[in-house]
Design brief:
The complex is a heterodimer.
Chain A: E1 4-7, E2 10-13, E3 19-25, E4 31-37, E5 44-51, E6 54-57, E7 65-67, E8 73-78, E9 87-94, E10 104-105, E11 109-113
Chain B: E1 4-7, E2 10-14, E3 19-25, E4 32-38, E5 45-51, E6 56-59, E7 62-67, E8 72-77, E9 86-93, E10 101-103, E11 107-112
Parallel strand pairs in B: 2-11
Antiparallel strand pairs in B: 1-3, 3-8, 4-5, 4-9, 6-7, 7-8, 9-10, 9-11
The chains are: A mainly beta, B mainly beta.
Chain lengths: 114, 113
């Protein structure tokens, strides 16, 4: 049982390049989330999904897109990366019905945009 | 606008000593309050979770308290160990039915021998 995994662990992009971050969970969780964590700030929600085929915007969705084609995977896309998107990205998942706080986090992806 | 404030921002403690971290929140009502531990370069890991009707919860050397009247929570670390060096994040769930959380910025704890 690997829990929540993220790919890649590190990435450096040039401004304007695109990339996709992959989150996978093997706990059969319905809900999945993408957050970003910046120095001196709390985690901020980018997008989330309450089930396969559904997505919703979070607090800071601009510049990102997501897809949940399979229950176990949640993809975060950057179509045209900007230096402001330099951050550490965390994926999380949880089953329904246990309260919003019962989230399990992945190890994070550190992204640098030059 | 920040709904969860934590103090102190950082602290250094000697191994074996106790410390207490504070969390003040403005979210009301809320479903539950959780403390997470985040080691450097890792994702947050849950330590405790309390509903609005609970006022204390322990997990080994970690004890969390909650005062829903004053909207304050604390995390007490007993007999600190070097492995306790981490950021401790207070998280409050937004009103019931909302799928979002309000995160504090964290208390950075450094335990020195």
């Amino acid at each position: 049982n690997a829990g929540v995994t993220q790919t890649p662990k590190f990435r450096v992009l040039k401004t304007g390049q695109s990339m996709t971050l992959l989150c996978a969970q093997d706990m059969n969780h319905e809900y999945m989330y993408w957050y970003r964590q910046d120095p001196g700030m709390g985690l901020r929600l980018i997008h989330y999904s309450v089930g396969e085929g559904t997505t919703a915007k979070g607090e800071v969705p601009d510049g990102y897109n997501v897809s949940r084609l399979k229950k176990q995977n949640f993809l975060l896309g950057l179509e045209s990366a900007a230096p402001s998107q330099t951050s550490v990205y965390f994926c999380a998942s949880r089953p329904p019905g246990l309260g919003a706080n019962e989230q399990f986090f992945g190890p994070g992806t550190r992204l640098t945009v030059l | 606008k920040n709904q969860v404030e934590q103090s102190p921002q950082s602290l250094i403690i000697l191994e074996g000593k106790n410390c207490t971290l504070q969390c003040n929140y403005t979210v009301s009502p809320f479903s539950n309050l959780r403390w997470y531990k985040q080691d450097t370069g890792r994702g947050p890991v849950s330590l405790t979770i309390m509903t609005f009707s609970e006022n204390t919860k322990s997990n080994g050397r970690y004890t969390a308290t909650l005062d829903a009247d004053t909207k304050q929570s604390s995390l007490h670390i007993t007999a600190s160990q070097l492995s306790d060096s981490a950021s401790y994040i207070c998280v409050v769930s937004l009103p019931p039915g909302n799928n979002r959380l309000a995160f504090g910025k964290g208390n950075q704890v450094v335990v020195i021998p």
